Amino acid sequence: MTTIIYTWGVVRLECYPEVANLTDVVFTVHWTLSATDGTYYGSAYGSIGVPAPTGAFTPYPDLTEPQVIGWVHSAMGAEAVASYEAGVAAQLEAQVNPTVVTPPLPWLSAAAAA
C-alpha cells in the first residue's frame, strides 16, 4: 500500500477590522487540502467560519498556519476532516484505477496506421 501524504494549507483569512478592542479578528478561513502518493495528486478547497476568540487572543501578525489549521479542524470536526481526506484519497485512486477512460478515436488511430 502506498503512503498518502496530506497537506492542509491556508490561502486567505477574512477578518473583522475591530471587535471588542481587538483588531483583525479572523472569522473565515479559506483552506486547501492536497494529497499525494509521490506519483498522483488530489486536492480540495473550501472555507469555514471560525468562532470569535475567547480567552487568549493571538494578534493577527503572530498567527501561524498550524494554529489556523487547528481552528479549521476544530470547526469542521474530526469526521469532516476524515471525509475530506478520504475524498482526496479517492481522487488518487481514480487516477490509479480510472473508472472512465478516453481512448483515441478509432478512425484517427486507423488513419495514422495507414
Structural commentary:
The chain is an alpha+beta fold and 114 residues long. It has one domain (5-113). It contains three helices and three strands. It has a three-stranded antiparallel β-sheet. A hairpin with a 4-residue loop joins strand 2 (22-36) and strand 3.
Helix-strand string: EEEHHH
The largest sheet has its strands arranged as 1-2-3
Mean pLDDT: 92
Approximate helicity band: 25-40%
Structural class: alpha+beta
Helical segment tally?
Answer: 3
Query: How big is the Rg?
Result: 21 Å
Seen as an oligomer or otherwise, the chain set is single chain
Poorly predicted regions: none
Task: Tell me the count of domains.
Answer: 1
User: What is the strand content?
Assistant: 25-35%
Distance between the termini: 43 Å
Number of strands: 3
Principal-axis shape equals elongated
**Largest sheet composition:** 3 strands, antiparallel
